[in-house]
Amino acid sequence: MSVPILRTVAALRARVASWRQGGARVAVVPTMGALHEGHLSLVRAALEQADRVIVTLFVNPRQFNNPADLAAYPRTEREDAAKLAPLGAHLLYAPDVGEMYPPGFATTVSVAGVSEGLCGAHRPGHFDGVATVVAKLFLQTGADLAFFGEKDFQQLHVVRRLARDLDIPIEIIACPTVREADGLALSSRNVRLTAQERQMAPKLAESLFRAAGQLGAGAAFSQALAEAEEAILAAGFARVEYLEVRSEADLAPMERLDRPARLLAAAWLGETRLIDNVRVRPASAA
Ligand SMILES: Nc1ncnc2c1ncn2[C@@H]1O[C@H](COP(=O)(O)OP(=O)(O)OP(=O)(O)O)[C@@H](O)[C@H]1O
Ligand SMILES: CC(C)(CO)[C@@H](O)C(=O)[O-]
Ligand code: BAL
């Protein structure tokens, strides 16, 4: 058994139209491939809620602010298709760059507000690239539901905002971050870690969970964040790019724990940039 692979918008639209004739509810799971258990958890969630599930695989050049990062991005389509088949995903949509951005392509979708700060501040143009390709994937698939991981928490907000603002009739469903047994959030970029860096990497999540516990128990933001940053650097990370508490509902900066929050971080381990985030809840609301 293998997953059918389609590479053009026309073929994709024809397939979805045939499903629609039978009244199918269609879901899309956008990815850049190099599939791991995090991606597969999204596919499983989609299969529970939809009759037909499209997984998209497109390494989107427009969202890479760093050409070396794009060049090094893992590309494993054959293995990805083999992982999807046993799950029962119905289609792998894997267009090439020319299909997604034909000559003359001139449109950018830019989401203000939630794209600013955090990753947006450190990866110029990244969220414009994400918003543009996600809008295209939503319109190309015409899906009813779209599944995204909380690991990319800011991206989730960007995608929700764009669907609302552009009146795209699609429901965005967030799925929890899948972690390794030692706490490291699964990410396609983890394969770039050396064996020694891989040993250090879980300190990021560990420090975030500890700080979230302290914040929930009433610790001062400045003290809990300073301690977390110190622990991340002491573990061998080269640099903490950001470490911030934001409102879970709208990503607004917070100085008091007066509503559900997330603690979000990006940090460099050698040549690899890792991101992660955890929930923060006042102990009384836990
Ligand atoms: N550990 C995870 N748990 C849950 N969802 C995840 C996880 N990792 C990625 N995802 C989700 O999978 C979708 C596709 O992400 P993507 O293909 O960029 O993978 P990735 O592992 O995040 O790669 P990278 O961060 O290295 O680009 C996104 O919605 C993303 O949030
Ligand atoms: C949503 C996405 C597939 C758009 O290229 C990408 O940003 C990702 O993999 O998270
Ligand atoms: N997982 C988000 C895609 C990116 O880092 O470009």
Please give a structural write-up.
By secondary structure, this protein is α/β, with parallel strands linked by helices. It contains eleven helices and nine strands. The strands form two sheets. It has a six-stranded parallel beta sheet, with helices on both faces. Strand 8 and strand 9 form a beta hairpin.
Structural features:
Pantoate--beta-alanine Ligase, Chain: A,domain 2; binds beta-alanine; 2 domains; binds adenosine-5'-triphosphate; binds pantoate; EC 6.3.2.1; 3-stranded antiparallel β-sheet; Rossmann fold; 6-stranded parallel β-sheet; alpha/beta; nucleotide-binding; 286 residues; Pantoate_ligase; 9 strands; pantothenate biosynthesis; 40% helix; 19% strand; ligase
How far apart are the termini?
45 Å
Mean pLDDT: 97
Major beta-sheet overview: 6 strands, parallel
CATH overall fold name of the largest domain: Rossmann fold
Give me the side-by-side strand order of the main sheet: 1-4-3-2-5-6
- Provide the low-confidence segments as ranges: none
How do the helices and strands follow one another from N- to C-terminus? EHEHEHHEHHHEHEHHHEEE
How many whole angstroms does the radius of gyration measure? 19 Å
CATH superfamily caption of the largest domain: HUPs
% residues in beta strands: 15-25%
- Architecture of the largest domain, CATH level 2? 3-Layer(aba) Sandwich
What overall form do the CA principal axes indicate? globular
Instruction: Tell me how many strands there are.
Output: 9
Ligand roster: adenosine-5'-triphosphate, pantoate, beta-alanine
Q: What is the CATH class name of the largest domain?
A: Alpha Beta
Q: Estimate the helix proportion, in percent.
A: 25-40%
